Amino acid sequence: MTRDELKSLLLAVRQGDCSPDEALTQLAGWPAETLTDANGEPFATLDHGRTLRQGFPEVVYGASKTPEQVATIVARLSARHPNILVTRASEAAYRAVTAVVPEAQWDALSQALTIRRDATRYGAGLIAVACAGTTDLPAAREALITCEIMGNETVLIPDVGVAGLHRLLRHLDTLRQARVIVCVAGLEAALASVVGGLVAAPVIAVPTSVGYGAAFGGLAALLGLLNSCAPNVTVVNIDNGFGAGYVAALINRQAGL
Fold first, then answer.
1. Measured in whole angstroms, how far is the alpha carbon of residue 59 from the centre of its chain?
2. Which of 91, 56, 61 is nearest to 74 (CA)?
3. Rounded to the nearest 5°, which phi and psi values hold at 201?
4. Exposed/middle/buried for residue 191 (C-beta within 10 Å: 0-12, 13-18, 19+)
5. DSSP strand pairing (203-207 vs 233-235)
């Protein structure tokens, strides 16, 4: 239930058009709904009230869930909410979801599964997602799709790592127009610090697990970013494009910035 729907329901109760018992019936299952498998065993508790608290429905983490579990969760969420996001969804999960919600879309590179019925722009400005190399695109696209499904104008700036700084400078005007920037980079992850020094906007850095042995699966990038000398740079976890995109979307909703 959205904030507007809840407000309308409360007004109907106040005006006598809806009894308290009828309102309780409409609110059944809110804010939580338990799902069970074919054997009656519970496997998920859906937080339907999250839209009211955070402005977007509960996001489903698809990894380690069976395709059937993902499909059941998405079916219930999509019955109540117009836009749905599943991260790290397998192709098998996508096929299971489209059997119950045919309009679902899946991005193979980022493994993000989406249902989008509400195209309203909730963000106050542009979110730019820049990545250092082509191998950083999975996390970058995860961030981009997260921002888009949450109602933001976005632009992807790919393959602009510091090994060829002139490539980044071609996009300087776009970066300076953005209200929030997500920077995705592996190896030494210098991109975010460079971008941070060029713009006034907040920069959310995503270290990726890209790199040879001494990159330690993204740990070197993470530590480098945590020590960034650019004061407008903050950092999320390794390969966490979703987390960066979600925070970027929340920042972009703050109209007073």
1. 8
2. 61
3. -75, 160
4. buried
5. parallel
DSSP annotation of 17 reads: S
- H helices, E strands: number in the chain: 11, 11
- pLDDT of 132-155, one tens digit each? 999 999 999 999 999 999 999 999
Crossing angle of the two packed helices 67-80 and 91-100, in degrees rounded to 10 = 40
Owner of token pair 């920069």: 203
Interval 201-251: pLDDT, tens? 999 999 999 999 999 999 999 999 999 999 999 999 999 999 999 999 999
Task: Report the C-alpha gap between 257 and 122 in whole angstroms.
Answer: 14
- Write out the two tokens for 180: 């929030």
126-252, CATH topology level: Rossmann fold (3.40.50)
Minimal CA–CA distance to 120: which of 49, 70, 56, 178?
Answer: 56
* pLDDT confidence bin for 51, thresholds 50/70/90: confident
Strand order through the sheet with 126-131 = 153-157, 126-131, 180-185, 203-207, 233-235
State pTM to two decimals: 0.87
3-state secondary structure of 180: strand
Predicted pLDDT at 50: 79
Q: Where are the domains of the chain?
A: 31-116, 126-252
Residues near 121 by Cβ (< 8 Å), separated by ≥ 6?
151, 152, 153
Neighbours of 122 (CB within 10 A): 14
| Beta strand 153-157 pairing with 126-131 | parallel
Cα separation of 77 and 73, whole Å? 6
CB distance 156 to 257 below 8 Å = no
d(CA 131, CA 121): 24
